[in-house]
């Protein structure tokens, strides 16, 4: 394999194969631990003296297959605090190709861990639906679609809370709030003040009412990234990802984000929460999709770069089955900028690319010729309820560089909105009402 070299891509598969191939005493827990350089250790939750010496020798020899990524064996008595290791909340199930049985992996990463941290259990899920708007890149009309959905829902009488989590490229407030309507504080201020114990002091000062809803039955309330006349944004942004002390323990970034959203929901009591996610494979996007969303809109244009990027993300989830099971039903593809010409051909091509992506990474496999398995997560290519089957937003020159704050002036007709956003808006309302996409 690659001559005499074992590379990062090979090491985890080899470790899983090695552990699955060797017999182990029953009742002993095995944990793979991968450090920040990629070296893999096998942690065995028993005392070294209680483990058969011949099996220690076999394991030690077998793990030499990992080459430079061999981290050796760890036993209970090798660790200063073994409970902290074996009870680490970041332990996830991992399934490597050609490995028969999923194993447990503790992956020590500098960033990116939040893609593998599912959020709250169903028993404590929020009452309002949380719809996350995500895209690998900007320029696909994500924020405009969010504004259009907020306006449509407010017209129907729903109270909407918009949360701008695109903190490193903020822009939602510019679409929905004139500069003079920004609140005193923004999202970054809460993270800074909460870290020193006074987050509650800024909560009511970080919400603005959007003029987009001045003539609708429902309200649109906005938690923007930055406050009015912000002068220290970069200094604050560079500090928000730090873990903080909270009630006698260390609280990581993802739980802080969840706590902030829950607190805002309790304060504002919205019917629906719309979250503008950070684009790309950033930790803020991870928290938004994995930890917050009840539904996650994955905006895509039909380009090779788009499908390659989503495949990188989906393949990451594919190797962690327990995480994948927790988030797969949240995902909803959105075909953005659907063209005016050759629509039948282009719709078929997008659907084919989306189905190929999901069937090779997200969907559970069904062997040809076998009987259907109840509750298997797999869909026909033309199943309109499937997560790969896209909601469409049509390209319309009238919406390019469009200012949503002009909507109350009726510059656009209901027919204009329906022709461009109708399929997407209908699908979003079905999700909100619990009828699926």
How is this structure best summarized?
The protein is an alpha/beta fold and 437 residues long.
CATH topology of the largest domain: Rossmann fold
How many beta-strand segments? 15
Helix and strand string, N-terminal first? HEEHEHEEEHEHHHEEHEEHEHEHHEHEH
CATH class of the largest domain equals: Alpha Beta
Strand content: 15-25%
Shape annotation: globular
* Largest sheet report: 8 strands, mixed
| Largest sheet strand order | 8-9-7-12-6-13-14-15
CATH-level-4 superfamily name of the largest domain = P-loop containing nucleotide triphosphate hydrolases
How confident overall, as mean pLDDT? 86
Q: Whole-number radius of gyration?
A: 24 Å
Number of domains: 2
**What is the helical fraction, as a range of percent?**
25-40%
- Report how far apart the termini are: 45 Å
Report the total helices: 14
* Named CATH architecture of the largest domain: 3-Layer(aba) Sandwich
Protein architecture, described:
- The protein is an alpha/beta fold.
- The protein has 14 helices and 15 strands.
- The chain has helices at 8-21, 53-62, 82-86, 142-155, 172-176, 187-195, 200-203, 233-237, 253-268, 283-292, 304-318, 321-327, 343-361, 414-432, and strands at 30-34, 40-44, 70-75, 92-94, 103-107, 130-135, 160-164, 208-209, 220-223, 244-246, 249-251, 272-276, 295-300, 331-338, 391-394.
- The strands form 3 sheets. It has an 8-stranded mixed sheet with strand order 8-9-7-12-6-13-14-15, sandwiched between helices. A 5-stranded mixed sheet has the order 3-2-1-5-4. It has a two-stranded antiparallel ribbon with strand order 10-11.
- The longest helix has 19 residues, at 343-361.
- The radius of gyration is 24 Å and the shape is globular.
- The two termini are 45 Å apart.
- The model has no long low-confidence stretch (mean pLDDT 86).
């Amino acid at each position: 394999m690659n001559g005499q070299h074992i590379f990062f891509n090979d090491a985890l598969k080899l470790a899983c194969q090695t552990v699955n191939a060797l017999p182990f005493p029953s009742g002993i827990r095995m944990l793979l631990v991968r450090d920040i350089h990629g070296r893999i250790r096998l942690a065995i939750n028993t005392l070294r003296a209680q483990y058969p010496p011949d099996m220690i020798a076999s394991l030690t020899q077998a793990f030499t297959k990992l080459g430079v990524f061999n981290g050796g064996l760890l036993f209970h008595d090798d660790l200063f605090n073994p409970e902290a290791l074996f009870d680490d909340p970041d332990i996830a199930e991992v399934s490597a190709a050609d490995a028969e049985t999923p194993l447990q992996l503790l992956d020590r990463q500098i960033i990116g861990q939040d893609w593998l941290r599912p959020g709250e259990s169903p028993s404590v899920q929020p009452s309002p639906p949380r719809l996350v708007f995500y895209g690998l890149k900007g320029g696909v009309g994500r924020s405009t679609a969010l504004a259009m959905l907020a306006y449509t829902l407010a017209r129907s009488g729903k109270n909407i809370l918009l949360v701008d989590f695109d903190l490193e490229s903020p822009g939602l407030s510019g679409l929905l709030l004139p500069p003079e309507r920004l609140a005193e504080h923004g999202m970054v201020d809460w993270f800074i003040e909460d870290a020193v114990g006074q987050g509650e002091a800024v909560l009511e000062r970080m919400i603005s009412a959007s003029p987009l809803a001045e003539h609708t039955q429902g309200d649109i309330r906005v938690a923007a990234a930055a406050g009015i006349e912000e002068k220290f944004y970069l200094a604050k942004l560079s500090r928000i990802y730090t873990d903080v002390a909270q009630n006698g323990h260390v609280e990581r970034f993802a739980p802080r984000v969840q706590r902030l959203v829950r607190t805002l929901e309790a304060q504002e009591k919205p019917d629906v929460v719309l979250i503008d996610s950070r684009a790309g494979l950033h930790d803020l996007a991870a928290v938004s999709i994995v930890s917050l969303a009840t539904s996650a809109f994955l905006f895509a244009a039909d380009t090779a770069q788009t499908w390659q990027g989503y495949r990188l993300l989906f393949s990451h989830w594919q190797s962690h089955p327990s995480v994948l099971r927790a988030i797969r039903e949240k995902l909803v593809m959105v075909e953005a900028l659907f063209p005016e010409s050759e629509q039948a051909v282009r719709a078929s091509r997008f659907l084919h690319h989306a189905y190929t992506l999901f069937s090779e990474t997200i969907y559970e496999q069904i062997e040809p010729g076998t009987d259907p398995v109840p509750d298997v997560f797999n869909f026909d290519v033309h199943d309109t309820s499937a997560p790969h089957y896209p909601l469409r937003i049509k390209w319309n020159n009238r919406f390019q560089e469009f200012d949503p704050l002009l909507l109350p002036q009726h510059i656009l007709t209901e027919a204009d909105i329906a022709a461009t956003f109708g399929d997407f808006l209908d699908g979003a309302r079905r999700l909100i009402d619990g009828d699926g996409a």
